[in-house]
Amino acid sequence: QVQLVESGGGLVQAGGSLRLSCAASGRTFSRYVMGWFRQAPGKEREFVGAIWWSSGSAYYADSVKGRFTISKDNAKNTVYLQMNSLKPEDSAVYYCAGMTTWANFYRASDYNYWGQGTQVTVSS
Fold first, then answer.
1. What is the mean pLDDT of the chain?
2. Contact 80/73 with Cβ under 8 angstroms?
3. For position 104, what pLDDT does the model report?
């Protein structure tokens, strides 16, 4: 079975930076899209951004564009989320997800595989 493992979360001050990693392992599968989502207490899981595996093209939510950047390393089978100029509102558990069949990249329910999540806390 495919496994996704996030890492790189932690506690940072507002204005700081973090780099999250999502490593895929296990059974090989077609990765059309790799997405990043986040969920704060009492809120629904929110789309952050996604990257198309083949082309490297990326799309970001309005709330993070200009501050967050998604990239990938094909050889390492890893996707990254570089987060700069962090705000307290960015505090959440961050999840990576894989989409193996074309669907709506912005909708969490359309992804097929999920990581366990990593906590990001931004202090004011």
1. 93
2. yes
3. 92
